[in-house]
Amino acid sequence: MEIEEAIARAKKNNQKAFNYLLDKFWDDVYGFQLKRTQNENDAEDITIQTFSKAFDRIETFNEKYTFKTWLITISKNIHIDLLRKEKNSITQVISKDDRNMFQVLDESPSPEDKLITEQHLAKLLRDIKKLKPHYQEVINLRYFQELSYKEISEELDEPINNVKVKLLRAKKLLAEIIQEK
What we know:
Keywords: Sigma factor, Transcription, Transcription regulation. Residues 125-174 form the RNA polymerase sigma factor 70 region 4 type domain. By secondary structure, this protein is mostly helical. It has 2 domains: 1-89, Orthogonal Bundle (Rna Polymerase Sigma Factor, Chain: A); 107-181, Arc Repressor Mutant, subunit A (Orthogonal Bundle). The chain has helices at 3-11, 15-37, 40-56, 67-88, 90-105, 111-115, 119-128, 133-144, 149-156, 160-180.
């Protein structure tokens, strides 16, 4: 699939086209943000928000420009907005830090962990635990608790498109972990 074709399909809400664009441009946007933020988690969060916003507004993309440049511009603007918010509100920084601490420290076994008895499921769970906590959480909510995108969005207090992008990325990373073995 060519980029132009993928964009045209994405404008028609084709999920495979979104996957293609995400795979094709993830490293470019993530690398750009990693240089700006010097922090893997922040770079990943901004990259997820970038794709979420881009996919939400794909119909506004002008073919006169390159798609990568459009994504980088969105990414840069999201980063600038986040910096402004952090500068204007110390409580946001504190609550952000608290949330990050909570994600790192909360490694208690979930109800699903206790119910797992089959070896294949246990192996899959071990692979899932190799993912970052926010990816573990979205996979858990979608596939173990069987919540809808809307329910996950409400649970995580994030836009639905962020949830979709996070889940896409989590599945891709999990597939890579499984293929390594």
